[in-house]
Amino acid sequence: MKQPNRITISNIAELAGVSKATASLVLNGKGDEYRVSEETQQRILLIAEEHRYQPSFHARALRSSRSHTIGLVLPFLTQFTHASLARELESLFRNVGIQIIIACSDEDPEQERVVVNNLLQRQVDGLIVISSNTSDEAYSKIHSYVPVVQLGRQIGDSSLPLIMTDATAATANLIQVLATQYPDEVYYFGGEPGLTPSKQRLEGYALGLQRANVSPRAEWIRQRNYFSYSGYDMMEEVCNELGRSPKALFTASFSLLEGVLQYLNQNPQMQQGLHLASFDDHELLDFMPLRIDSIAQDYTALAFNAFSALMALMEDKPLSAPVTQNIPARIRWRHPESRRLSKLLATDLLPQ
């Protein structure tokens, strides 16, 4: 289908009987500054409105030396956490006239290098990254000319601005309650051990057991990756070993919980006697027959702080908050006994 020709500044200038320079000044809001008469300004603006004139984005970018785009690098867009953050960030940047370009790394550092290079070639004004890298050498170089904000994960020991959830505190609080109920068996399913969130969640698990005076056992801890099939496989493995479901199980992500629930759906007899808990929350858990305690990340706060940090850096302003920001998480108690014990132990728990 043939697209209609777009009206240009030259067309508007011709229709208004003025020079292209005069039309450009008025359409860019500088008519008063350059003493263009009110009558001429109104004539130019009326013609522009009648013909639905839209200024060229590329021309605006050239004038301002900015592309008005930022890159958002995610491991996967399909995972609940990443999709939630992308939704929040897109709304924030859209409201200030900045378009997000989303690129996925598939948890592959080489693929991440490729997609970041593609974003830089498109001259994005900044980057927000949930990185699969263990070294920030490349990002530190990029940060010298394009600001970079880490979100959700720290890249090695990077000192670049970092916004992430304080997973250790909330996990410890939840596990303490869980271990108080089941001191002889609290399993842990986690993802890639080298990632910062994995380290924090496992640290919180160990701390929670310690507070409940429970000694961890090596066979309780299983770690693979954050795909749902890993949750399924680990659940199948444990149930085969025990001949039943574990008494208590904490999954370190919603995707792992999805895999566990898929296994339980196929093997409903394994739901008996199982107390499930998970990092990450979804409103659908409110309607599950299993009462699953969960840790809810504050995606709104995570996104807003990442947005604020990147906007400040793009405008060469000092950050209004510390370079590293840990956003508190909230526990959703759904199991009646967990709710009761959490109240009894409230004086011993860290602030939630």
SSE blueprint and pairings:
Layout: H1 9-16, H2 20-27, H3 38-50, H4 57-64, E1 69-74, H5 80-94, E2 99-104, H6 109-121, E3 127-129, H7 137-143, E4 148-151, E5 162-165, H8 167-181, E6 187-190, H9 196-211, E7 221-223, H10 228-242, E8 248-251, H11 254-266, E9 275-279, E10 293-296, H12 299-314, E11 324-327, E12 330-332, H13 336-344
Parallel strand pairs: 1-2, 1-3, 3-4, 4-5, 5-11, 6-7, 6-8, 8-9, 9-10
Antiparallel strand pairs: 10-12
Helix pairs in contact: 1-2, 1-3, 5-12, 8-9, 8-13, 10-11
Describe the structure.
The protein has about 350 residues and is an alpha/beta fold. About 45% of the residues lie in helices and about 15% in strands. It starts with 8 loop residues before the first helix and ends in an 8-residue tail after the last helix. The relative contact order is 0.10.
What letter string, H or E per element, gives the SSE order? Answer: HHHHEHEHEHEEHEHEHEHEEHEEH
Mean pLDDT: 90
Strand element count: 12
Oligomer: single chain
For the largest beta sheet, what order do the strands appear in spatially? 2-1-3-4-5-11
Number of helices: 13
Please give the largest β-sheet: 6 strands, parallel
Gap from first CA to last CA: 58 Å
**Secondary structure: helix percent:** 40-55%
Radius of gyration using CA atoms only: 26 Å
Query: Segments where pLDDT lies below 50 for 5+ residues?
Result: 60-64
- Class derived from helix and strand content: alpha/beta
The best one-word shape is: elongated
Amount of beta strand: 5-15%
